[in-house]
Design a protein that fits this description.
By secondary structure, the protein is of the alpha+beta class. It folds into 4 domains: about 230 residues, no CATH class; about 130 residues, no CATH class; about 100 residues, Rossmann fold; about 55 residues, no CATH class. About 45% of the residues lie in helices and about 20% in strands. It is built from 19 helices and 16 strands. The strands form 3 sheets. Strands 2-3-8-5-7-6 form a 6-stranded mixed beta barrel, surrounded by 4 helices. Strands 14-13-15-16 form a 4-stranded antiparallel beta sheet, with helices on one face. A hairpin with a 3-residue loop joins strand 11 and strand 12. The protein is elongated and about 120 Å long.
Length: about 525
């Protein structure tokens, strides 16, 4: 669609003048009776309006004045409706009187001629150049004589000296060119012109120049955009439909990516919790899933580019002829990189935004903090002493998770663990062992009490600071089903070291292999959890 639009605009700019001044007014001039009784409360009916002779007054003088403008080529023209007769065929056409020397500067008529030459108008008496479609309607060829009958009643025998084909259907099927003097004779309007056509070095200046010329001379002056505004308006509607459809497709694709990543988040809740326990912050987890969405968008972009290029090349091989506003051979395709860039940017942006909400949900996968009254840890201060100490630690589960009645998971626990000590916590199922370990491992916050790590109170620390403490000072030993299934044994063992970022990748691998060797698992370094016994 855009390819055809660009082709049409390029054609119009190429074969037509950029600005045209006509022998008419944008607002009809006031009639004498309106001037005489303009302020009266009188309505006159049946008054014959004053008729004025058509034509641009002092037209050639205006042409000379406009030719002094910088970067502007100017050519006069007289147009008229005629009946062309050849044999038994009569065809209505528009005859346009031109000065070939000036016409060369404002149009590409000479380039578009398929037979004859523009200068043949000088060497042949009453010569005429016809559009290829018009000549086909008449059945006339170069060298044939046709009869032209104007609205003024003048009949002139004219000889076809050339044919042209611009690709603009209206011009090729209904227009012909002759010398300006000959058309003035045919129309019985000596020394009259009704068009002044201008070609600009910078086409973007057509509209402002048209407004200045109209303000200067009063005659209606149109830029190429105004002259073709009906077609350009259709293009605006087409683009609105196209972009709306494309936007709807992107929205559907974004929801698809949202669903995929949301499903992944639900499937990876346990893995996310492991990452959190190893010291990964919420923003790290969020970044993982946003990057996943970004990668999905990039993959879709590359695949879309490949399929789009392939489809364009296939369509380019299709051959057919259509005649509408312009004559077109096959599909007019826009191969510009801008289309690929815009589509790719839209795909990547939609995928990334679609991944953001699931990423936020993933970042919140963590034991909930207690709500309610002011922070019970606000008054805690650093205290020297054991490596790990719990002081009157209580955890009450309330809110939607507990139902109508709050549930006490851990109550008034005091615990001290010194350096080098080994402590085992035992108790029946449901006694709160895991809940206590969550509190001691800084994975959860107590409702009351305090947990000291190396003498530092931890309850009031931010989530990011608590994650850093887990990474630097705490270690977790997981059972089989808590290992990350995507990683091998070596990656699972060294993941905290990699996150810490204090050693090079080679040093991290060496340390991981050393630890596995101490356990007799060096040979299993490359095995995934489901391959381990």
């Amino acid at each position: 669609m855009q390819g055809f639009q660009q082709y049409f605009v390029a054609k119009i700019i190429d074969v037509s003048p950029h600005v045209t001044m006509k022998d008419e007014y944008r607002a009809p001039p006031a009639q004498p009776v309106e001037q005489a009784f303009g302020g009266g409360a009188v309505r006159l009916v049946g008054v014959k309006p004053k008729e004025e002779l058509r034509g641009i007054k002092n037209g050639l003088a205006k042409v000379a004045e406009l030719e002094r403008l910088q970067g502007v080529a100017v050519a006069p023209m007289l147009t008229g409706q005629v009946i062309l007769r050849y044999g038994s065929r009569d065809v209505s056409a528009q005859i346009q009187g031109i000065e070939p020397a000036r016409e060369r500067r404002v149009s590409n008529l000479e380039r578009d001629m398929t037979a004859g030459a523009l200068d043949d108008l000088f060497t042949t008496a009453n010569g005429v150049i016809l559009g290829a479609g018009l000549a086909e309607k008449l059945g006339a060829e170069p060298g044939d004589s046709v009869t032209a009958l104007s609205t003024a009643g003048v009949v002139l025998k004219m000889k076809v000296v050339g044919l042209y084909a611009t690709g603009i259907t209206e011009m090729d099927n209904a227009q012909g060119y002759a010398l300006l003097k000959k058309v003035q004779v045919l129309e019985d309007r000596p020394n009259v012109i009704n068009r002044v056509r201008l070609k600009l070095a910078e086409v973007d200046g057509a509209e402002p120049l048209a407004r200045r010329i109209e303000a200067r001379y009063g005659y209606r002056t149109e830029s190429w955009e105004e002259a073709n505004q009906n077609v350009l308006g259709i293009f605006v509607i087409q683009n609105a439909i196209m972009y709306s459809t494309t936007g709807a497709i992107l929205v559907v694709a974004a929801f698809g990516i949202f669903n995929i990543i949301s499903t992944v988040v639900l499937e990876k809740v346990r893995d996310i919790a492991i990452l959190k326990s190893l010291g990964f912050e919420s923003r790290d987890v969020e970044r993982i899933f946003v990057v996943e969405g970004l990668l999905v968008g990039l993959a879709g972009m590359l695949l879309g580019w490949a399929l789009g290029w392939l489809l364009i090349e296939l369509l380019a091989q299709v051959r057919f002829t259509i005649e509408g506003f312009v004559k077109s051979e096959g599909f007019k395709l826009d191969r510009g990189f801008l289309n690929y860039a815009l589509a790719g940017a839209a795909a990547v942006t939609a995928a990334t935004l679609a991944a953001y909400l699931p990423a936020r949900r993933a970042a919140r996968v963590d034991p909930p903090s207690p709500g309610g009254s002011p922070d019970p840890c606000a008054a805690a201060k650093p205290a020297a002493g054991p490596l790990l100490r719990a002081e009157r630690v209580t955890r009450v589960l309330s809110g939607p998770q507990a139902g109508a009645v709050p549930v006490t998971l851990v109550e008034e626990v005091d615990l001290t663990i010194g350096r080098g000590e080994f402590v085992a916590i035992t108790g029946p199922s449901g006694s709160g062992k895991s809940s206590l370990l969550y509190l001691l491992g800084l994975l959860d916050r107590p409702s009351r009490g305090e947990v000291y790590l190396d003498g530092q109170p931890t309850c009031g620390l931010s989530d990011a600071r608590r994650a850093r403490l887990r990474l630097e000072k705490l270690g977790f030993v997981f059972q089989f089903h808590f290992l990350l299934p995507e990683f091998d044994a070596l990656r699972n063992v060294t993941l905290p070291l990699r996150k810490l970022g204090r050693l090079s990748a080679a040093e991290v691998d060496a340390r991981g292999r050393q630890l596995l060797a101490e356990l007799g698992l060096e040979a299993s370094a490359g095995k995934t959890p489901d391959q381990l016994s």
